[in-house]
Amino acid sequence: MLRGAAVRAALLRAVRGAPGRAGLGRAVPRAEEEEEEEEERQRGGRVPLYPGHIPTTPLQKALLAAGSACAALWDPYRHDMVAVLGETTGCLALPKLRDRMRNDPEGYRILQERPRIRLSTLDMARLGGLPDGTLGREYIRFLEDNKVSPDTRMPAKFVDDEELAYVIQRYREVHDLMHTLLGMPTNMLGEVVVKWFEAVQTGLPMCVLGAAFGPVRLNARKLQVLATELLPWAVRSGRNASCVLNVYYEQRWEQSVESLREEIGIFPPPAVCV
Amino acid sequence: MAPTCKRRVSGKALANGSVGVIYQVFENVAEKYDVMNDSMSLGIHRVWKDILVHKMNPSPGTLLVDVAGGTGDIAFRFLNYVRSVRERQLQQKLRHHQNLSWQEISKSYQEEKSNPLGDSQVVVCDINKEMLKAGKKRAQHLGYSEGLSWVLGNAEELPFDDDKFDVYTIAFGIRNVTRIDLALQEAYRVLKPGGRFLCLEFSHVSNPLLSRLYDLYSFQVIPVLGEVIAGDWKSYQYLVESIRRFPPQEELKAMIEDAGFLKVDYQNLNSGIVAIHSGFKL
């Protein structure tokens, strides 16, 4: 994917085509690169740190946080807005998450090796062929039942640290596995339950907001089920469980979901229809 | 439901030349173009466009070409204007005829119905298919059909004959043209002798305080609006930067004169945030 600076430079060169400005010393490429970097610095304050990074000033982050919160409330299907909200409000929670990962041997390995969960890296056929009850098989079943794909996750754009950008990316990609482990579908109720679990686990303000505002769109019956059975279980599990980002899921496809739940500390889900 | 996947401005497009890159920017923004215009300018862009058409003051029978007219804002305003002028003309005609018989009155109503625009026509020309598509949909939605045509074309090489149009407008489009001088030459070519060139475009604010506020708003707020409303930060960052790079009022005036236009002048709107340049082919 093309870096932002190069795209902008090309576009600016195009617009500068007016006759009076033709003689602005295009002969020296290095000077031009420096000029571009200078422009970048003037604009967002920094140079992009990873592919897809858009440097932003504190004011822009604040506006983005407010705007994306409104947009996500207005239209809960704007996943990109939920993602932006997470990135712009996670400046305190993300370093804490990263430190928890660093202090755990498996989490540390994940930070070093940077595995990504996407269709190109997963062997879908092999996972689908695993026995029922294993993480791999149940994950594939979840993807098929809910007609979702691991590739629809937004890449991080507004996180100003390359490692933290990976942490939030990992959190997003592991979200579907959370659904699998908690046994929750992707309807509104299921998403709210997963958000509560994630809020307790990660402390990300976006999860907290989603958990608090999500139930607004549920009807009375679902709210009752949520309040009496699902929420207490999700919160207890979230508190009891070790950090879910410290699990190298890609090496545990053959493990059974039950044993993985026990290992992490997630209590068995209540027997309600979600 | 995830938002429709927009093609990222890619390296391959870059290799094809800057026209391709700008094309993709507008392909991305076409859907949300009007919503974004309203949000970014707080609705004021509608006033700017109204002022442009009032300055044009077209009479019925005018043939207008609106270049880079994408979603039809100027075209629709033009049609509304000539329709109301025509109505007033017919009413005036009626008033001057005293003692009309019923037959004469019904004939004048028929005239109004059969020729409400008085043979005025507007051709909307845009290089971008998505923008034209959005414009056609809007026209259908708003009920515009007569006197309106949509043509795919490049401002630097218009698909029209010489000396064809009475008025040429380009509203917020000339900024995106790679060779502005070529676009101006084409404008000169397709206008009839006596024809008028009108350009509505972002320009330079000389007032230092307003300029600082304008910069702050442009660089801090507009890309955020682009991300929140259209899910596209980069295109709106490009927009803001292209405005800064565009020639200021006097320089654009000189370029228009170079193309052969006479009586070239400009009018600042909102202290120079926007300017209307006008010239005549004489």
From TrEMBL, chain B:
UniProt GO BP: methylation
Known pathway: Cofactor biosynthesis; ubiquinone biosynthesis
Membrane-related topology note: Peripheral membrane protein
PROSITE patterns: SAM_MT_UBIE, UBIE_1, UBIE_2
Domain of life: Eukaryota
Listed GO MF terms: 2-methoxy-6-polyprenyl-1,4-benzoquinol methyltransferase activity
Entry EC no(s): 2.1.1.201
Family: Belongs to the class I-like SAM-binding methyltransferase superfamily. MenG/UbiE family.
Name of the protein: 2-methoxy-6-polyprenyl-1,4-benzoquinol methylase, mitochondrial
Organism listed in the record: Gallus gallus
